[in-house]
Design a protein that fits this description.
Radius of gyration: 29 Å
Oligomer: single chain
Number of helices: 7
Shape: elongated
Helix content: over 70%
Largest sheet: none
Number of strands: 0
Order of helices and strands: HHHHHHH
Length: 296
C-alpha cells in the first residue's frame, strides 16, 4: 500500500507539472497573440490615419512636406512607433512587475545580500545609461534622417528615370542610394551592438564582483561553511535579478532609440489635422448638377 501511495503521489505530481506547464504555454501564446494583434492593429490605424490626413491636406502643404517625408512617416515611423517604442514600454512594465515579485521573495530569503546586489546593480545601470543615452538617441535621429534621404533618392530616381538614362547618370544615382544604404547599415550595426552590450557588460561586471567578494571572504579567514552559504545566496540573487535588470536596460535603451519616431508621428498627426481640409467624405458636395457649354 505504501509503495502504491507513493507511486500515486508521483503520478499526480507529474500530472500537475504537465497541467501547469500546459497552462503556462497557452497563456503565454495567447498573450503573445493579443499583444501582437494590438500592436499591428494600432500600426494599421496610425498608418491609415496619416495617409488619409495627407490626402485631405492643402496641396501646397503636401508639396512642401515632400514625398520622402510622407512615405517615411506612413510606413517606417508608424511601424517603428508601434513595434518599437510601444513594445518597449510594454516589455519594461511586464519586466518590472516580474522583478518586483522576485525581489519580494529574495528579500524574505536574505535581505542584506539582496539589497547589496540591487544597490550595486542600480549604480551600474544608472552609470551605463548616463554614458550611452545620448549616443543611442543620436542613432535614432540618424536612422530617421537617413531613411528620409533614402526615400527621397528613390523617388527622384524613379521620377526622373528618363533624364537619368538620357544623360547617363545611372551610376551617379545608384551611388547616392548606395551611400544612404551604407549609412543606414552603420546605424543598424551600431544599434545591434548597443542592444547586446547591456547583457554582456552586466554579466562581466557581475562575475568580477562575485569573484572579488569570494576572494575577499577567503582572505578574511571566514569559515568555509559560511563562505559556501554566502556564495550560494549571492549567486542565486544574481541569477534571479540580473536577467530582469538587463531586459529593463535593453528595452529602455531601445525606447530612446525609437523616441524620434514618436515625435514624428505626433507632429505629423498634429500638423495634418490643423491644415485646411480640401476634401470631404460626403460625395454630394462635389456632385456636378449643371451643364458645360463650349462656345467659339
Amino acid at each position: 500500500k505504501g509503495d502504491l501511495s507513493n507511486n500515486d503521489f508521483i503520478v499526480l505530481l507529474f500530472i500537475l507539472i504537465i497541467v501547469v506547464y500546459t497552462a503556462k504555454f497557452l497563456i503565454l501564446l495567447l498573450n503573445k497573440y493579443a499583444v501582437s494583434k494590438a500592436i499591428f492593429s494600432l500600426d494599421k490605424k496610425i498608418s491609415s490615419k496619416l495617409f488619409f490626413n495627407y490626402l485631405n491636406c492643402d496641396f501646397e502643404y503636401v508639396t512642401k512636406v515632400g514625398f520622402s517625408e510622407i512615405v517615411k512617416n506612413i510606413y517606417n515611423q508608424s511601424r517603428a512607433f508601434t513595434a518599437g517604442f510601444l513594445m518597449c514600454i510594454l516589455n519594461i512594465f511586464l519586466e518590472l512587475t516580474t522583478f518586483t515579485v522576485v525581489i519580494f521573495f529574495l528579500f524574505i530569503l536574505n535581505f542584506k545580500i539582496t539589497f547589496t546586489v540591487i544597490f550595486f546593480s542600480i549604480i551600474i545601470m544608472a552609470t551605463y545609461l548616463l554614458i550611452f543615452k545620448n549616443r543611442v538617441l543620436k542613432l535614432g535621429l540618424d536612422r530617421v534622417f537617413f531613411e528620409k534621404k533614402k526615400y527621397q533618392h528613390i523617388y527622384e530616381g524613379v521620377k526622373g528615370i528618363k533624364d537619368i538614362i538620357l544623360f547617363n547618370k545611372k551610376k551617379f544615382f545608384s551611388n547616392l542610394l548606395y551611400k544612404r544604404n551604407e549609412q543606414l547599415e552603420n546605424v543598424g550595426v551600431s544599434h545591434a551592438v548597443y542592444s547586446a552590450l547591456p547583457q554582456l557588460l552586466f554579466e562581466f561586471i557581475s562575475i568580477l564582483i562575485f569573484c572579488f567578494i569570494t576572494i575577499g571572504l577567503f582572505l578574511s579567514n571566514t569559515d568555509n561553511q559560511n563562505i559556501l552559504l554566502l556564495i550560494t545566496l549571492f549567486g542565486f540573487c544574481l541569477i534571479r535579478i540580473l536577467p530582469s535588470i538587463v531586459k529593463v536596460v535593453s528595452n529602455y535603451q531601445n525606447l530612446i532609440y525609437y523616441y524620434p519616431s514618436l515625435n514624428d508621428i505626433y507632429n505629423s498627426l498634429t500638423e495634418t489635422k490643423l491644415k485646411k481640409v480640401i476634401f470631404t467624405e460626403n460625395p454630394e458636395i462635389y456632385e456636378f448638377k449643371h451643364n458645360l457649354i463650349l462656345k467659339n
